[in-house]
Amino acid sequence: MKNILYISYDGITDPLGQSQVLPYIINLSKEDYKFHLISFEKPERYIKYNSSIEKICFENNIEWHPIKYTKTPPFFSTIFDLFKMKKLTKELNIKHSFSLIHCRSYISSLVGLSFKRLYRIPFLFDMRGFWADERVEGKLWNLKNPIYKLVYRYFKKKERQFLLESNHIISLTHNGKKNIIKLPCFHHLENNISVIPCCADLSLFKPIKRDSNSFIIGYLGSLGTWYLVREMLSFFQKVKEKIPNAKFHVLSKDDSGIIFTHCKKLGIDSENIHVEESDREDIPFKTRNWNFSLCFIMPTFSKIFSSPTKQGELMGMGIPIICNSGVGDVDFIVEKYKSGFILNDINKVNLDNIFNTNFVKQKLNDGANQYFSLDKGVKLYLKIYKKIS
After folding, report:
1. pTM exceeds 0.90
2. 101 forms bridges with which residues in the sheet?
3. What stretches in the chain show pLDDT beneath 50?
4. For residues 225 and 21, what is the distance between their CA atoms, to the nearest angstrom?
5. For 353-367, what is each residue's pLDDT tens digit?
6. Measuring CA to CA, how many Å separate 132 from each of 8, 70, 90, 305?
């Protein structure tokens, strides 16, 4: 049995870790692999969910090594976390002699690259997107600040090394892969890049019969940085003009104040909007009466590498999406599987066309099984593991 180290700077107690890390590892553990998982956990979420995650890991023979995430001060906290990551990786490798280090995104890939160079351990660069560009375009790094500019240049240099020196690369989108290999220095990487979107556990995210005739627009997921909350509320405002009793239902673990602050500015009656948290396993039931789900994301350069986790989950539940164009492979998927509407201009919308289109939940679920199946994603990872470990 081969020992695999999986490093994630995201927490496994976070929604993303529970949907985009654990399901893959659980299924890959059924093969001839023993997983050791390093993750960085936010204290409040760790306290709430650690016992359930520990139970899942124990039942699937996964050794979980959670580390406390350090938030402040900026930069120095990340450097401190990186030190802890390297130290623990070294200790675990001495004990288990890893056959592969699977690194999720850039911070963990600093360790993967280092250990490949030092110990010749194969390194899988699961890139998730152009991370440094995301930080700039999301206004988290201001390049007018010389420190941010220095850090940006550092990570763009490391990005090049990750692409050229890793044993294999995972891109979330075909659009992203095309943009990498069109650069002259990366032409030769075409066969070294596999596309695996953010798959969904379709045994959980499946259709549930409606039990209400209310017209409900939904939104699932985070509210910050990339998500055009104001624009989604403006869209809902237009819907209300056509369907006065329409409701907007938001499922998010983020601060609901983000929604209601925009409502006040736009003059939207907050009584028509319901915001609540939801554990992952409760999402299918809570969304059963949604007519559509909005998915408005800032269409920047870095977002061509983005595969919204919610797209596969919503398709699996039979809920059509209304989205803007220019994000990852979203346009292609919506058109191929007729799973919603793409708005080339979110300020110019033909609502009659939307309202007069009927969707069959099972057909959307069938499309999700073709494109976002977790089993399909696991098979692709397994093929890569066998090739490089």
Report:
1. yes
2. 5, 123
3. none
4. 22
5. 888 888 999 999 999
6. 17, 19, 26, 12
